[in-house]
Amino acid sequence: MKRVVITGLGAVTPLGVGVQHSWNQLIAGNSGLVSTVGWGSQWDSIPCKVVGKVPEGSIADHKWDSSDHFTKSESNRLALFAQYAMTATAEAFADSRMDLLSVDKRRVGVNVGSGIGSFHDAYDNSVNFHEHGYKRVQPLFIPKLLTNMAAGNISIKYGLQGPNHSVATACATGLHAIGDAYNFIRNGYSDVMVSGSAESSIHPLALAGFARARSVVGSFNDDPQRASRPFDKDRNGFVLGEGSGILILESLDHALQRGVQPHQIYAEVAGYGLSGDGFHITAPPESGEGAQLAMEMALKHAEIDPQNVDYINAHATSTKIGDIAENNAIFNIFHQNGHLSVSSTKSSIGHLLGAAGSVESIFTILAMKHDTLPPTLNLENLEQNNRFVFDYVPQKSRSKQIGIAMNNSFGFGGVNSSVVFTTYIP
């Protein structure tokens, strides 16, 4: 089978626009979580008042303004989640140093997903139709709504004729997109894949829905940066976030043939696992059995012993049952691994839903590249459970040599995914 490597990264996150800026903020222990107080009556009616929103402002300050990236016509045509994805893709292509004029675009594909698509367009057009009738529905309402339109618009912009694919598996979307893209390359469908996900979910209807489902945090409204606290005994729900992460996956042969140097390869994708819980629409089984199956499959395909894994970027969303279930799964596989570190970068950015897995994969890969463990912010009092035995990197980042890392993503509907990354060795 072909070896698959990562040669480019792009990101839009609650920590800011751009991979390097987001990483610097993450490692410095900064938070992208903000209060919704004062945003309007709809927001004020919702008991949860904390979100992870992409900061607005000038690109010079690493903040988001559509006009920095798109013309007015393009902004009107593209849903926000697609704008995030296209912006991250532009950064990833530039980072990869790929000359798109010289590659065979029939062998370059896209697999970019979204868990929800455009909440904003669904809500606005529903209100317009209800209050004003047919003629107030936007002509591009349906194309803007579809979750595959991030992938579609990326394919169109760059003239890519390889697989044009999209994933919509709730909060596992981003990692499924990366894993599936990995398999597309390994199985000969393409040489290069633009892979990842995007979400623009900061909308009062979205927050209200998650609040009614009792999924989002119900406390720390007066101190939003403390609201996301994976593995902490006082956690009580996730923080809704948004953004995009895009990775350029490429067969090793293709990368080397176009002149990529070994030091320009971020990491190698070594294994991919996926499974279903078969249990409940929103909650995992406390045993973590489904998550365990996905992790075991990823390790098996990577031919890596659990003892050799250095770091896991956990899905850990800061929910009561979810963090316990994932930790149980990790314990069952890695309990004999005395040097394993586990952290959750959701403590800094919140839960980006469909975009979580791709952004967190970028953070995992950069942790390997820089031999630096991202912190689990707000981990002040570890969950009182005799299976919480690992190094959870509380509060502060620190140095550690990381040669093998794993990223996990799980989602509503009982979907589970896990990817193993390794340092590239020629």
TrEMBL record:
GO terms for molecular function: 3-oxoacyl-[acyl-carrier-protein] synthase activity. This is 3-oxoacyl-[acyl-carrier-protein] synthase. It comes from the Eukaryota. Belongs to the thiolase-like superfamily. Beta-ketoacyl-ACP synthases family. Keywords: Acyltransferase, Fatty acid biosynthesis, Fatty acid metabolism, Lipid biosynthesis, Lipid metabolism, Transferase. The active site is at C171 (for beta-ketoacyl synthase activity). GO terms for biological process: fatty acid biosynthetic process. It holds the Pfam family Ketoacyl-synt_C. PROSITE patterns: KS3_1, KS3_2. It catalyses: a fatty acyl-[ACP] + malonyl-[ACP] + H(+) = a 3-oxoacyl-[ACP] + holo-[ACP] + CO2. Residues 1-423 form the Ketosynthase family 3 (KS3) domain. PANTHER family: 3-OXOACYL-[ACYL-CARRIER-PROTEIN] SYNTHASE, MITOCHONDRIAL (PTHR11712:SF336), POLYKETIDE SYNTHASE-RELATED (PTHR11712). GO terms for cellular component: mitochondrion. The lineage of its organism: Eukaryota, Fungi, Dikarya, Ascomycota, Saccharomycotina. SMART domains: PKS_KS.
